[in-house]
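User: Okay, second chain of the day. Same drill as before: sequence in, structure tokens out.
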Amino acid sequence: MWWAILLSTVVGYAIGSVQFGLLVGRITRGVDIRDYGSGATGATNVIRTSGAKAGVLVIILDIAKGIAPVYIGIALGHAAGIDHDERAWAAAAGAFAAVCGHVWPVWAGFRGGKAVASGFGAALAMNPLAAVAMIPVAAAIVATARMMSLMSVTMAPMTALFFVILAALGISPWAYAAYSIGAAALIVFRHRANIGRLIAGTEPRIGRGGEKRADASGG
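Assistant: Same drill. Structure tokens below.
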């Protein structure tokens, strides 16, 4: 069991460290998007700096980046000959490692994004119906407030609560609930500056806040 979990963690982190937002920013604008807007490499900052089409592309790729480690973990569990619950822990370990890789990417100087899309991708692979059920709520928040950050800090804990309820009912493994709690905590932590601006009423809405950062070193 342990080698499957360990290998899943390593592979998940390597996959999570691939920064599609950084790559798309360089291709579309020839810039390091970490020098603009929020400084993150996720889709929200790509939308602000490179436009909606580029942002949608990054969302899709980052969701896929969260999906892949779950299935890899399950496959490794099968290879190790472990049961369903133990395979779920391998999948959860790989998924959480991917989220951490997105936040602290080894391939990009440990300066990454906020893991919302990749975190959702993992949840989608773990329980498609539960993850899809969250989409209308997330869409309503975005449509009403026009703030991706508000949606992120609201939906991550809600998804974690949903997965805990499913685990308590015996519908979903506790490993997936543990993943969702850890991912939600990390996502909220990464949005701490956004939370401060939301409270102060200064958080930029979608399409705004893509100016070059004062602390940017160039590029």
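The chain has a mean pLDDT of 90.

User: Thanks, on to the next one.
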